[in-house]
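User: structure tokens for this one?
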Amino acid sequence: MKPIQEMVVLVEPDCVACVRVLRTAGVLRDQGIITNLVVLNRIDDPDKCRKFGIVIFPAVFINGRFAFYGEFSMEEAIRFLEHSQKQ
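Assistant:
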């Protein structure tokens, strides 16, 4: 399995689910499953977030494709990656 080239996580302040998603993404990065982790905060980066057309946070894009709203497990991220590599 190739690593995730880029994971973009869109978050907002005071969001418990966002904190958990960032924790999972950090573990994936530490394990070498993610090459580049980009975190965009709705308040700090409103224009960048708006370009994704997202109104639900957290939202996750993997290698340029929408992957998840809300929390996800490491296993779900790996399954998404494996499935997207088959296409």
